[in-house]
Structure formats: structure tokens, C-alpha cells
Amino acid sequence: MRILGFIKDLNLLSRYPPYLAVIAREVEEFHLCHVKGKLEEKSIIFHRLRIPRTIHFSSLLLALPTALKAFKICRKHGINVIYVLDGIYYELSGLLTSKLSRTPLVIRLRTNEVKLRPLLRYNVIKRILGDFLTRLVVTKAKRVVCISHELQDLVLGWGVDPSKVVVVHHGVDTKNFRPMKVEKPFPKVALFIGGFGPEKGASTLLKAAKDLESIHFFIIGPHPADVQVSKMLKNVHYLGIVKRDRMPHYYNMSDVLVLPSLTEGLPDVILEAFACGKPVIASRVGEIPWIVPSEFGWLVEPSDAEQLKEAVVNAFSDKKRLGAMGEAAREYVVKNFKWSLYAKEMIKTLK
Q1: Which residues make Cβ contacts (< 8 Å) with residue 87, sequence separation at least 6?
Q2: N or C, fewer C-beta in 10 Å, the chain?
Q3: Domain 189-336 classified CATH 3.40.50.2000?
Q4: Contacts with 175 (C-beta within 8 Å, 6 or more apart), sequence order
């Protein structure tokens, strides 16, 4: 089986789990078109697309020349399946390439773009166009892979044949993400990963942290220019973007992961925290209620700072219980979230 996929910037893949590489290692050939960036991965055949920089800013303008070049790659290498992720550039590039080459299209939905676009303050035209395109690609695809049951319900609501829709969860590398002894800078540490994007609920976290001076919150991820790090609370520490191979250190430096998101698919950071033996406090959105039972986590309503504060206080009220919950969480992901299971389901779907 020969698969063709798309990624706009290869540098982004270095920040994420190897959800493309684990597929590539199980098939005859996995071709990946990209516009910029570099990545070392022997299992993937990379195709740098030479497209004028003047149109890099526009997903719509970029998609057409991408599809024309990808069409030639399909013919040259005998591609069997077009595999795309959600997002305007990937969806449109995949759909056009599929139609030009008459190659089956498979789309993987990782987040609820319909909910996300208003949170990211897309203008009305871009939101309507984006929602229309996502729905069009989903209904035209031969298979739709959803990372959450919420996305599955969304797709089925669009009238897609249930036999074409499957839920496949990511895995987690439990060898790299594991419990380890690290020096803690403070007695009580809560970790937040996602930066200051509105969809991650950072404002809710900061409201809760204001009344929890004895608990220190570490924030990892990008931040927009309008966020003044220097004016943050004394118990809030911004670490910026951390390289993926350093993330186990920060999970183990914390006592609990806090994720008050407004929308999610299945957050990899929850699986990684569990693998490091850390319980989770997270919003009741996306696939989170499916993977965070009360045995090793707390669920709160999104945007509810008071409820989030109560959950954090509850978590730190019993350190012994917190440790036991972390141990149970580790056992849970080791059994249920293996990359080998993900690869098996994805290969089955793509075939």
C-alpha cells in the first residue's frame, strides 16, 4: 500500500507524537508533501513542494498548486490512498488531489474545527467557508477516522454512512513517558500545557490560580504577543515551548496536569501525564470524559474557574491519594493506549 499525505510545515511534526511515522513503518511507502521545514524520519518519503512564498499565507491559494504537484506524485509512485488531517489546507489539498488522480480519500479528524473556529475568532466568511469545506471533504471521503466520539457524532449528524466512520485513539510511548525522580522547585506543582490560545482555557486557569497562592502553576506552550509574561502572578511560571524529549521531566516535576480546555479531541498531554504517573484535572469536553474516570482524575465544566479551583484544592488535599491515582493512571494507559493498537486500526482502515 502506497499512501500520500500532506503537512504544511514539517517542523510542527517534531512537537507532536509520531502518529504519521507509526503508520509509515507498517506500509510499503508513505509519501509526505510539505511546503517548508525539515524532519528526520527514515520511514517517510518527503516531497518538498516549490510553491511561491507570496501565497503561503493563504490555505486556499496554497491548496491548488499543492494538489497539482501531488497529482504528479500520485501518478509517478502509484499512490493507492490519499490520507489527510483536518484543517482547510489539508482538506482542500486532499480533496483536489483525490479528484484529479481518482484516488480514494481518507480524512482523520483530530479536533472539532466547527467549535474551534469561533474560539480562534475567525471572521464570519472564513468560518462559513471552513465549515462547508470540512463537511464537503468528510462526506466525499471513503473513510473518516475520528479521534473522539464527539467527532463521530458530528460526522454521523452530517449523514455520513456509519460503516465509513471509525474512532481510533492515539497511543503513548510509555518507555519515554514514565515515572522518574526529578527535583521539584516547589512542594505543590500543577502543570498546564497548551499556551495561551483561547481554546485551551488559560484565562480560566489564571483566575483559579489567583486564589491558590500555595500552589505553583507551570505553563508550557506558545503565547500571543498581547500576553505580558512579566506581569503574571507570582505562583504562575511560563516556560515557553519545550522540546518533546524534555517533556517527561516536566510531567514528573509536577503533581497533577490541569487542562481547562474549551474544546478538545483526545489530548495527547493527558495520555503522557498518565504514562508519567500523574492524575489529571480537565474539562468535560471532547474525548476527555471517555478517558478520565474518577479513579485517576477530576472533570470540570469549561470556563468555570470556581469549579476548577475546587478541583485543584481537592487534588492537593491528599498527597497519598494523588500518588495512588497516578499509579492507576499509568497502568491504564500501558494496557489501553499502545501505538501498536493505533497502527493496527489505522492500517485496517486505510486498506
Answers
A1: 59, 113
A2: C
A3: yes
A4: none
CA-based nearest residue to 5, from 72, 78, 97: 97
**Which residue do the cell numbers 485517576 mark?**
296
Ranges for all domains in the chain classified under CATH 3.40.50.2000: 2-167, 189-336
Specify the pLDDT at position 113: 87
116, three cell numbers: 474551534
Q: 2-167: which CATH topology?
A: Rossmann fold (3.40.50)
Burial level of 28, CB count in 10 A (0-12/13-18/19+)?
exposed
Question: What does the block give as the cell for 322?
Answer: 494523588
173 DSSP 8-state letter: -
How many Å apart are CA 273 and CA 296, to the nearest integer? 11
Query: pLDDT (tens digit, 0 to 9) for every residue of the chain, 351 residues total?
Result: 999 999 999 988 888 888 999 999 999 999 999 999 988 889 999 999 999 888 888 888 999 999 999 999 999 999 999 999 998 899 999 999 999 999 999 999 998 888 888 887 788 888 888 899 999 999 999 999 999 999 999 999 999 999 999 999 999 999 999 999 999 999 999 999 988 888 899 889 999 999 999 999 999 988 766 566 667 889 999 998 899 899 999 999 999 999 999 999 999 999 999 999 999 999 999 999 999 988 989 999 999 999 999 999 999 999 899 999 999 999 999 999 999 999 999 999 999
Set of cell numbers at residue 133: 469545506
Strand ranges inside the chain, DSSP E: 2-9, 29-36, 45-48, 81-85, 105-109, 143-146, 165-167, 189-193, 216-220, 236-240, 256-259, 280-283, 297-300
DSSP calls for 246-297: GHHHHHHH-SEEEE--SS-S--HHHHHHHHTT--EEEES-TTHHHH--GGGE
Calpha distance 132→124 (Å, rounded): 12
